[in-house]
Prior knowledge:
Blueprint lengths: L13 H16 L8 E7 L12 E4 L2 E10 L2 E10 L4 E2 L3 E5 L8 E4 L5 E5 L4 E7 L13 E14 L5 E7 L7 E7 L5 E9 L6 E2 L3 E4 L6 E11 L2 E14 L6 E2 L5 E2 L12 E4 L5 E4 L3 E2 L5 E9 L2 E9 L7 E4 L12 E10 L5 E8 L14 E7 L7 E4 L9 E6 L14 E5 L12 E6 L5
Antiparallel strand pairs: 1-32, 2-3, 3-4, 4-5, 4-6, 7-8, 8-9, 9-10, 10-11, 11-12, 12-13, 14-16, 15-16, 16-17, 17-20, 18-19, 21-23, 22-23, 23-24, 24-25, 26-27, 27-28, 28-29, 30-31, 31-32
Amino acid sequence: MPSYFRNRRDEISFGARWRVLVMALSLMAMGLAAAEPELISSAGSGRATAYVESPKIITREGLTHMAWLDSEAEGFRVRIRTRDNATGTWGEVVTLGEAQDNHGGPALTIDEAGYLHVLYYSHHHPFRYRRSVRPNDATAWMAYEEFGHNLTYPALVCTRDGTLIMAARRSYEDQPWELEMWTKRPGGAWQAQGPILRSRQGNYAQFAASLAWSPDHETLHLGARIYEMRPDDSTWNATGIVYLRSEDDGATWRNAIGEAVTVPATLDTVTPLAVGSIEQGRVLNGGSIDVGPQGEVAVPYSVRVDDSAQSYVALRQPGAPEWRHRWLNRYLPSAWSDAAVMAHGGAAFDEAGKLTVLAVVLRMDPDSTAWGEPSMEIVRFVSVDGGASFNSEIVGSVDPDVPHWMPNVERRTGFNAVPNGNSFIYTGGERGASLTDQLTNQVWWVPADVD
């Protein structure tokens, strides 16, 4: 039986168990099985597959394109490579361009005609944008265009008419930092649309914002982890997990309970799904969000308290006012049942409605940074019953001295397809001591359930 259905450790109803058994038998009949990681680079940077808000994998018509950030002697290089899933063969590694430092990795999407679009380069700089020369072909690209000011961490999607929508952090010298939205119509230039979220503090802030489409490609969903610091106290922080949706491609927004929100919204005005602060001893992290084939929304997050961390996925069915918060630690494999779980990953649905949530497990103490700790390993949670229950597995080979982390899962950000599970890439190796360290980390790709 596939690993997703072995050693289930949850209590669910007989009807739910029967549905799970039927799904398992169906998958077995189709020959599906969990796949092993494949090495795609040995020159990965200290943020090779970061950050979770930037989608990096596109599958279309039997080809899977994946992008990441290498570090070479001459500097940081954004790379992309294509796999033919029918034959299992790989194309050559293509260099898309350079990056400012290890924060300048790529965000990838695809339009209805099959053209690939990528953003990269920036860490408090303008972004660089390129489009593929041919549909569904990552080997040749148009010259890059630059746009924006002081932008970092791009989230990227494509609308029905081919308009690109991007959300990214905007930093300032003398005012609160924001999550800024930009759009690019086909054949047009990138245009600023204004801020969606804003920090309440005039100091460092991060938003970790991801975008996802409803199945009909009409509703745009945004999930974010707001992290903000006081300008007079760098040890103080506040964090919150927020969700917004828009029925007009980002012109107006509603919050997690369906109320209209004035943008830019803050933690005080957005009605967060969860909050924390250093004063409370709770620091929150968030992963990328996704929307299932029936319109169900999944928002993963974690809560760190001193020497442990608990992870959850907030789920909402279409039309339902309430959110269900599922505790994921309870589904860990037995050998890892006491490990901390951090939401440095994301949620993704395949076209059959199977939900995958990626996170990292680690052994923590009060002095842990929880960012690139050597004990980090990738954990994959999978649900076939809409999040009522999960099965889990640790991915790849475990090495207590080498972190395996920064999983980036394939999601439908434009007109790509995820028919049988969700593939993902992750980094094997250290974070580095600075933003400019040249490292030789490994970059791994984990196929979906079946080629």
